[in-house]
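Exam revision sheet. Question 4 asks you to relate a sequence to its structure. Input first:
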Amino acid sequence: MPLAMNREVFITCAVTGSGGTQDMSPHVPRSPAQIAHAAIDAAKAGAAIVHCHVRDPETGKPSRDPALYREVTERIRDADTDVILNLTAGMGGDLMFDGTESMHRMSPKSDMAGAAERVQHVLDCRPEICTLDCGTMNFAEADYVMVNTPGMLRDMATRMVASGVRIEIEAFDTGHLWFAKQLVAEGIIPDPVLVQLCMGVPWGAPDDLNTFLAMVNNVPPHWHWSAFALGRNEMPYVAAAVLAGGNVRVGLEDNLYLSKGVLATNAQLVEKAATIIANMGARVIGPEAVRDRLHLTKRAPL
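Answer key, structure tokens:
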């Protein structure tokens, strides 16, 4: 592919995620107040978009409680700092099994929900953006499958679009991009199309550059895209994404460290990414420019 560096870059900060990192760093936010505060700090540091999950405030474990999403949304919307809100809709498709001899029944640890339940918080909170994980995959743990069937994705996407929320396609492998293009071809996902390339997530696309360029080359040229990688490759992928013509994502969902042995805050990761972008000769753009580019509308929750 030819070098087509992006000169006007937006940063997404994924502030907490749903992984088991709640006890690995004191900076991983748990409560709605902590998540909103981290999101606002990230916005002040240069993030145009904040991508939010919610967690149980006591245990830090991932949650789908609509009341928690509502509180996060209201706190961010009430803040003086402007930022685009991107809520996950990836929860509710967690299929787990109790070992290889029990594959005929799912584990009670599973969290499976219907399309209406999976998107209800999105319809209530009315963020500018929500995510759609465009495929089923083995996901890290031994007997855990992230389930997103074609029928489920069509149903969820239809509900999201009808609510006026822009979809961010989450692509963990090239097949997910293939299906995303099918959803666009069917008219389910409208223009402008936004996609996040998720690199290095076991067991999706590895984060080597050959695979990354295969992902980039499968993104239609008129789509808008960002990319991220996990752990120590988070910052190198800031540079790689910009060089390849995309935007960037950082945050504690993807990486806990500012440097070796030094735990980061979300704002510090955004600041480091912004410095890399500036040193490459590009410019970090803010939420109003991104709203204009992606045709987003800022709305209060219902």
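Marking note for examiners. DSSP finds nine helices and 18 strands in the chain.
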